[in-house]
Specification:
Blueprint (H helix, E strand, L loop, with lengths): L2 H24 L2 H8 L3 H5 L5 H28 L3 H25 L1 H9 L9 H22 L9 H15 L1 H4 L4 H23 L3
Helix pairs in contact: 1-2, 1-4, 1-6, 4-5, 4-6, 4-7, 5-6, 5-7, 5-10, 7-8
């Protein structure tokens, strides 16, 4: 490995620890440099500022995960309406399993997003998914109505509250730094809880 690559890797590793310990707002480039065993000037040779350094850590995983989330929801919306109704729970459970595995493959990055991103655009990352989920739940309710079901009337603000509660609860495994085995059981209980609630509201089971 070249000196260039070794130095950049040292900076990346040091910045990961600094951001995880202190969050974006309180992280300090001088401290990152000290951790990495380089000068602050060396950091500026690779990154223009603290934000670019944080973004370099988070962006590849954040974008990939969000795109997968959008692809899964789009694929479900493109199913025939009768299949959407029949497969909703199966589809949702499978997607949650895949997302859960992805989060644990990149756990520290999601800790940065969930716990350490205040002051960056990633502070609203989960909210972006909540907005997508709210829109898609409204669309699924429309499908149910077309298929002859009679869901409880739900306003968009309640859909948003419920979607936000779901995502916030799921990402608690990151906030609490849970081991994967413990988190799997936790997420399974949460999924069952929300599924039962939606079944009651949507009245299609």
């Amino acid at each position: 490995m070249s000196n260039y690559s070794q130095t950049k890797k040292a900076i990346i590793n040091a910045s990961m620890q600094e951001f995880l310990e202190k969050g974006y707002m309180d992280a300090n480039l001088r401290h990152i440099a000290a951790r990495a065993g380089v000068t602050t000037g060396a950091i500026y040779g690779y990154f223009s500022d603290k934000h670019e350094l944080f973004r370099a850590l988070v962006e590849p995983v954040a974008t990939d995960f969000y795109e997968q989330f959008e692809q899964v929801t789009e694929a479900f919306n493109n199913l025939p309406e009768a299949e959407q109704v029949a497969l909703m729970h199966t589809y949702s459970d499978q997607a949650l399993k895949e997302f859960f595995d992805y989060v644990y493959e990149h756990f520290d990055i999601f800790r940065l997003i969930k716990c350490c991103s205040a002051g960056t655009e990633y502070e609203q990352y989960i909210e972006r998914m909540v907005e997508v989920e709210t829109k898609n739940t409204r669309q699924f309710i429309s499908v149910l109505e077309k298929q002859g079901y009679a869901p409880v009337p739900i306003r968009d603000n309640l859909l948003h509250i419920l979607a936000n509660a779901y995502f916030s609860t799921i990402f608690e495994v990151v906030e609490h730094n849970m081991q994967k085995d413990e988190a799997q059981a936790y997420v399974g209980h949460i999924s069952a809880f929300f599924s039962a609630g939606w079944d009651s509201l949507l009245k299609y089971t």
